[in-house]
Task: inverse folding
């Protein structure tokens, strides 16, 4: 008799295995010709340009709320002059990458799951294989790389907008000194803070696209299956982002 | 047997979980022959077709195409090997992000050394053969079921394959379009000289297209004959299918 692992552990290991296998296949196929630059560019537009409004809006409000909250707390200990440093460091190191990536997981991870899932159930993926085209090469490689490349670029913009949002609240609404505020924004920031956030963003991008594509690619069972694949893509990508965030913060400090 | 069959299946078995779909199935298909496989829904006809083209691998048994056992081929070898196949899928399986023209040009761009003008010429030829000139710029969502099937045909024949596979080419179409589709299959076969395997549950279509008809039931080919003889097979399972009766050995 086979001994079975408890349900949750088994599921966790299976998901990890699938993720690893999918990522491995994407990496193996990446250097192989033909290179589909048009697809890559198309995906960069879909993930990057089309997600700009939602990511930037989220970053803006996050920066604003952060300034509002920290100001109200720090004023109690007469440390309101540090609002700027707090906003900028939190945005760059943590909030912009994580919140921005969660938005992208909801927007693009789900779309990838649904698109590839539909292609699977309508036999379009089988058709690709029959037409001597590897579906992983054709569908996954451009999506994974486009998301991995684009996310850090988006997050740089989100950093700027988030800090601007904080500035707006602190200076305009709370009457902070604009010159001190700008000075404090950069005073304690290191290039390393910026890079740690961008490395996080790239890793999250890789996670979102790989999970989204994998869930869609192995969809079974019609319209309901596509719905499930989409849901799972978003849920799993979001959880992975938060877990990976912890470990990356530990490593990159 | 004087000539080696183009496609040869021996003892092919396939199960999904507990469900046995193909059970020691044997089948020979000769060069240039038009084989039609009939059988009820869910009897594994599509699964059989997907084995021939290597989309599914058998649990046991061998599948030889041109004397090559395709179940032993590696992943990249089978991708190259598939260039000699053309396959039309149940609902067409057109790429819905591409126009009709792009769909038909897709295999040519991916797997042939043709230049852009040569590709354009071949696409026009294929669309002419399925009588769909003028629909080049339409998207699959703008086409009727029959037209979608025909674009699927055009895409399948673009690389001038040796072997053509049709998965339920006329399911869900009206009788007139069905007749047209059957006619197209016969035409395409003539102009390409290819071996074809068609799957259907429509006996009328089967008799129009086939050199030989095989019936699949419980994972095996239970009857195999030329259309004229097929009708006279006494097997009660065949007779029930031919007459479309609800009760009989197939449904018990």
Result:
């Amino acid at each position: 008799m086979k001994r079975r692992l408890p349900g949750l552990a088994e599921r966790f290991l299976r998901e990890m295995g699938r993720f690893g296998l999918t990522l491995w296949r994407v990496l193996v196929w990446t250097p192989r010709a033909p290179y589909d630059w048009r697809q890559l560019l198309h995906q960069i537009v879909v993930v990057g340009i089309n997600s700009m409004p939602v990511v930037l809006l989220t970053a803006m409000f996050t920066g604003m709320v952060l300034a509002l909250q920290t100001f109200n707390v720090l004023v109690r200990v007469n440390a309101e002059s540090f609002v700027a440093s707090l906003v900028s460091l939190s945005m760059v190191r943590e909030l912009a990458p994580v919140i921005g990536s969660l938005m992208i997981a909801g927007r693009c991870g789900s779309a990838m799951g649904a698109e590839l899932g539909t292609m699977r159930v309508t036999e379009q993926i089988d058709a690709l294989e029959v037409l001597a085209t590897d579906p992983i090469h054709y569908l996954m490689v451009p999506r994974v790389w486009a998301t991995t490349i684009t996310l850090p670029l988006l997050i740089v913009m989100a950093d700027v907008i988030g800090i601007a949002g904080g500035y707006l609240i602190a200076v305009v609404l709370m009457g902070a000194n604009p010159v001190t505020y700008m000075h404090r924004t950069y005073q304690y920031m290191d290039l390393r803070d910026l890079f740690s956030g961008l490395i996080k963003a790239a890793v999250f991008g890789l996670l979102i696209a790989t999970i989204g594509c994998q869930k869609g690619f192995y969809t079974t069972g019609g319209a309901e299956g596509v719905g499930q694949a989409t849901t799972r893509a978003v849920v799993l990508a979001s959880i992975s982002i938060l877990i990976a965030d912890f470990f990356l913060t530990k490593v990159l400090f | 047997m004087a000539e080696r069959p183009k496609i040869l299946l021996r003892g092919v078995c396939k199960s999904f979980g507990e469900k046995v779909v193909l059970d020691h199935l044997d089948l020979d298909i000769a060069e240039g022959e038009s084989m039609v496989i009939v059988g009820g829904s869910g009897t594994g006809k599509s699964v059989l077709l997907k084995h021939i083209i290597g989309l599914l691998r058998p649990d046991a048994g061998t599948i030889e195409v041109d004397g090559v056992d395709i179940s032993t081929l590696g992943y990249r070898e089978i991708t190259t090997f598939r260039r000699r196949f053309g396959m039309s899928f149940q609902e067409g399986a057109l790429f819905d992000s591409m126009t009709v023209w792009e769909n038909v040009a897709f295999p040519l761009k991916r797997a042939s050394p043709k230049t852009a003008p040569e590709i354009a010429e071949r696409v026009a030829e294929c669309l002419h053969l399925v009588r769909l000139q003028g629909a080049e710029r339409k998207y699959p969502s703008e086409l009727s079921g029959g037209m979608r099937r025909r674009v699927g045909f055009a895409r399948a024949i673009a690389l001038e394959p040796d072997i053509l596979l049709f998965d339920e080419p006329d399911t869900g179409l009206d009788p007139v379009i069905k007749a047209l589709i059957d006619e197209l299959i016969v035409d395409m076969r003539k102009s390409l000289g290819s071996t074809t395997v068609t799957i259907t549950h429509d006996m009328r279509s089967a008799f129009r297209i086939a050199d030989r008809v095989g019936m699949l039931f419980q994972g095996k080919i239970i009857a195999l004959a030329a259309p004229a003889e097929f009708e006279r097979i006494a097997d009660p399972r065949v007779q029930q299918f031919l007459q479309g009766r609800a009760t009989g050995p197939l449904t018990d």
About this structure: The CA atoms of residues 110 and 231 of chain A lie 7 Å apart. Chain A has a mean pLDDT of 92. Chain A has one domain: 37-252.
